[in-house]
Specification:
mainly beta, 12 strands, 7-stranded antiparallel β-sheet, globular, about 130 residues, about 0% helix, 5-stranded mixed β-sheet
């Protein structure tokens, strides 16, 4: 089982991936990213947007699927830092399977998302069946 640190909590993931989705602050359209949790990094494997403009152009191999421009990626990062600007209509929705939670909905300190030690003593806040 994979473990994902979200701020000070640990989410136990039955599958090693999660999806982040949000509404773009300028264009007010949807954006989704699918990430895989690896031992020492997060890997972006797919992105999707409901339109283009204001820094949200579809990737070079994007294809239109059900109103979303979808493309595959292979970008690895050690962590994600999500900081609400106050200009968005909400936070990010983080989903693992059918279990979702909103994070970073209000301006303030960034929320850190990164792989973490499964033996962490922090509370398990999100479990995917």
């Amino acid at each position: 089982m994979s473990a994902l640190c979200i701020g000070a909590t640990v989410a136990a993931l039955a599958a090693p991936q999660f999806t982040l989705s949000w509404t773009h602050s300028v264009e007010r359209t949807g954006w989704k990213e699918t990430w895989v949790v690896e031992e020492d990094a997060l890997r972006l494997v797919r992105s999707a947007v409901q339109g283009s403009g204001a820094g949200m152009e579809p990737g070079p191999d994007a294809r239109l699927q059900d109103g979303w421009w979808v493309w595959d990626s292979d970008v690895r990062v050690p962590e994600l830092m999500l900081a609400a600007s106050g200009a968005t209509v909400g936070g990010w929705e983080l989903c693992t399977g059918a279990v979702c939670r909103e994070i970073g909905a209000t301006p303030g300190a960034p929320v850190r998302i990164a792989p973490c030690d499964e033996d962490s003593s922090a509370a398990v806040a999100l479990v995917s069946e």
